[in-house]
Design a protein that fits this description.
Blueprint (H helix, E strand, L loop, with lengths): L1 H35 L14 H11 L14 E3 L14 E6 L5 H9 L12 E9 L5 H15 L2 E7 L5 H15 L5 E5 L3 E3 L1 H9 L10 E6 L27 E10 H11 L8 H12 L11 E2 L7 H5 L3 E3 L3 H12 L6
The protein binds 2-acetamido-2-deoxy-beta-D-glucopyranose (NAG) (2 copies).
Length: 344
């Protein structure tokens, strides 16, 4: 049963991953133009009837392709309402791991490494993988695979919108909605991506410190200071002025991983209902914090790294997170990371 699932998972992730990637890439390039000129409404070449002004009106009413529909009641399609109940009680740390539907193998690696809920003794950690809807072409197959995976591990939260990079803000916000509804007493919430190394013991013992009173205004991670929007089209984080017109962003915590108190997470969700959502999730959280008047808490130097760092046993025991780790590499270093090393 288990062997069969693993086989399916491996075959499924290799095959689907490739195809879905190909399709996603094609869609990324074709979507904007399709949205501007659907086949029924071609751009006029001549303009005897003043059509271009009409077209202009039409465009003004049509949302920008990067515009996000929020607030909106996106449903939870795979859900675990009782995740935070049960004998272990409200979690000290709720890990919300943002993954794509086809990331079956990556989730498996995370469960076996930093996502392990019982890694830090004496502290209740709950982990949820947040996924959206798979791309249409393989939706049926991937959906079946997701449901089987969830039957085995009971740790998926599927939300009802298309899973794309540009919808990541929606994913984080609906994950916080889940927390508000089913896990509002979680002491701390970690938002984390999959391409990282994470040291949960250091995070819990050194940053969050279970024996100290709750730090209710805490949000920390790698902080971008005085950031500005990217304005060149084609850049990965390009921000069209129509969607965000100011020439500065507020300071914010970098998206690969940041941690905040549960009560702050709930307040961020509250203001997010009226702050205009933008697709850069980490910047958007920064905008919400500005609205709340909450300052970021600087982490100890070099504990959240957004540049790749080569694995080193002692160094990695004294930090929280390193960006740009692939699953194979995580599996490789993890046994060594877990061994006690008295010479550090
Ligand atoms: C999680 O960690 C515990 C304690 O170190 C260990 O016994 C368990 O096997 C780990 N679980 C997984 C899925 O690796
Ligand atoms: C976000 O999800 C919605 C709902 O599924 C979808 O219509 C839209 O195309 C997605 N937006 C982006 C920018 O990917």
């Amino acid at each position: 049963m288990r062997g069969q699932l693993i086989l399916k998972v491996l075959l499924g992730s290799a095959f689907m991953g490739l195809l879905v990637l190909l399709i996603a890439q094609q869609q990324d390039f074709s979507t904007p133009s399709m949205d501007l000129y659907p086949s029924s409404q071609k751009a006029p070449t001549e303009d005897p009837l003043g059509l271009s002004s009409r077209k202009f009106e039409w465009q003004a009413r049509t949302p920008h392709p990067l515009d996000l529909r929020y607030p909106y009641p996106y449903p939870f399609l795979i859900n675990h309402p009782d995740k935070c109940e049960g004998p272990r009680g409200a979690p000290f740390l709720l890990m919300l791991v943002m993954t794509k539907p086809q990331d079956v193998g990556i989730r498996q690696v995370i469960r076996q490494t930093w996502g392990n809920e019982t890694l830090v003794p004496g502290v209740v950690i709950h982990r949820l993988f947040v996924v959206g809807l798979p791309q249409p072409l393989f939706a049926q197959e991937l959906q079946t695979l997701l449901e089987e995976e969830d039957k085995e591990y009971r740790d998926l939260l599927q939300v009802g919108f298309l899973d794309t990079y540009h919808n990541l803000t929606l994913k984080v916000l609906t994950a916080l909605e889940w927390m508000a509804q089913y896990c509002p007493t979680a002491h701390y919430v970690l938002k984390v991506d999959t391409d990282v190394f994470l040291n949960p013991s250091y995070l819990v013992q050194q940053v969050l410190q279970p024996n100290r009173p709750l730090q209710s205004n805490l949000i920390t991670g790698y902080i971008y200071r005085n950031p500005v929007p990217f304005r060149k089209q084609g850049q990965k984080w390009y921000m069209p002025p129509e969607l965000y017109s100011h020439d500065k962003y507020p300071d914010y915590c970098a998206g690969p991983g940041y941690v905040m108190s549960g009560s702050l997470a709930l307040r961020i969700l509250t203001v997010a209902q009226r702050v205009k959502a933008i697709y850069l999730e980490d910047v958007f959280v920064g905008l919400c914090l500005k609205e709340l008047g909450v300052k970021l808490t600087p982490a100890s130097p070099n504990t959240f790294l957004i540049d790749k760092k080569k694995y080193d046993h002692c160094a990695f025991h004294r930090l929280v997170l390193v960006h740009h780790f692939q699953p194979q590499e995580l599996l490789q270093i993890w046994p060594d990371f877990l061994t006690a090393n008295t010479s550090c």
